[in-house]
Write a structure and sequence with these properties.
The protein is mainly beta. The chain has helices at about 25-30, 75-90; strands spanning about 35-45, 50-55, 60-70, 100-110, 110-120, 125-130, 135-140, 145-150, 155-160, 170, 180-185, 190-195, 200-205, 215, 220-225, 235-240, 245-250, 255-260, 265-270, 275-285, 285-295, 300, 310-315, 320-325, 330-335, 345, 350-360. Strand 12 (about 190-195) and strand 13 form a beta hairpin.
Length: about 375
């Protein structure tokens, strides 16, 4: 977990394994270049695992964190992620996101699977398997449900499915296309894209599929809505100016303002967790790049080398961006740090991984 962030350099313990702060020879660790040291032990009972750990400042020779992380259902990975979160937060000042989950679509041959996994791509759980495409998964703010678009009936229909019991319901099945669901931060409504009245436009609907109302009225295609963290604004993609660009408008209605300019097309905008900027897919000269833009300065920053790079989403702490990419001819998931310095490919099972979305920050099973 810590290595994947690019912020930590791990030092070989070389056979030394103290389990208590009283057994630590600080001078020895300092000579190896260690600034911090994580030690501890794990005890296993019939249905419970306790991981007692301490994070030590090797320079000041003090205890930074001393905590027991437990899991009643023997979830070792959850314990490991939680310990990594605590270490990350203490040493960087930012919340860790190792205990969060991601969702994506995996395609193998004619089979499409909607998958939920740990933030590192491990511990996969399949929510839905079918022979028709699945696209645009979106997490509810409380992490209990996913909305997505399925083509199982022959056209695009929006569903909401519970992660707890896998029960699902139709959210939107109107004439034409139903697509691009996005939850409001309060979870009281979703933005969806419908073509029932002609061109694709953005509508709001309750999680029960009621209280439908139209939000945009541009002449072109308006799609890929995304709420600001405070729920006051909507970002979306529109070709109303001739080619796909990112626009912003008040969520309670009003004029839309174009906010991406310059060469190329821009797609799939998503707010940063602090609301100060957004990430999007930037297409120019046949290549797709992951880029960010600051609202105040309007400056665009390209973070990746370019290729087939789409559907970016921020981690809940805003430090990482996950996106769909390609390697060796198959779809993979990748991450890049928000400053563009650290790039990682994520491991997933065989097949094509597409349509990734990072889940919300929740308290996991390990406490």
């Amino acid at each position: 977990d810590l290595t994947r962030t690019g912020l930590f350099r791990l030092i070989d313990a070389a056979g030394k394994s103290p389990h208590d702060a009283s057994k630590v020879n600080y001078a020895d660790w300092q000579s190896r270049g260690a600034e911090a040291l994580a030690i501890g032990n794990v005890t296993v009972a019939a249905k419970r695992i306790d991981a007692k750990f301490q994070l030590l400042d090797a320079v000041k020779q003090t205890v930074l964190v001393a905590q027991v992380v437990s899991s009643t259902d023997r979830q070792l990975r959850a314990i490991g992620h939680r310990v990594a979160d605590l270490i990350y937060e203490k040493l960087t000042g930012d919340k860790g996101v190792f205990s969060t989950r991601i969702a994506y679509v995996n395609r193998q041959g004619k089979k499409f699977r909607l998958v939920v996994a740990d933030s590192d791509g491990q511990n996969e759980q399949v929510l839905l398997t079918q022979n028709a495409p699945i696209i645009s998964p979106a997490w509810s703010p409380d992490g209990s449900s996913l909305s997505y678009v399925s083509f199982e009936t022959g056209h695009a229909v929006v569903y909401v499915q519970s992660l707890h019991n896998s029960q699902r319901k139709v959210l939107a099945d109107f004439r034409g296309s139903n697509s691009a669901p996005a939850w409001s931060p309060q979870g009281d409504q979703l933005a969806i894209v419908l073509s029932r009245d002609g061109s694709s436009q953005i509508y709001f609907v309750s999680p029960e599929g009621k209280d439908l109302r139209r939000v945009t009225s541009g002449g072109g295609i308006d799609t890929e809505p995304n709420f600001s963290p405070d729920g006051q604004w909507l970002l979306f993609t529109s070709d109303r100016g001739g080619n796909p660009q990112v626009y912003r408008m008040p969520a309670n209605g009003g004029a839309a303002q174009r906010i991406t300019y310059g060469d190329g097309n821009n797609y799939s905008p998503r707010y940063s967790p602090d609301g100060k900027g957004f990430v999007f897919a930037h297409q120019v000269k046949g290549k797709f790049y992951i880029a960010t833009q600051d609202f105040q300065t309007g400056q665009m920053e390209i973070l990746t080398e370019g290729g087939w790079e789409k559907k970016p989403s921020f981690s809940p702490n805003g430090k990482l961006i996950m996106y769909a990419s390609e390697a060796g001819g198959r779809g993979i998931l990748a991450t890049v740090s928000s400053d563009g310095r650290v790039k990682q490919k994520m491991s997933t099972t065989s097949g094509d991984a597409r349509e990734p979305i990072w889940g919300p920050q929740l308290q996991g099973n390990a406490d």
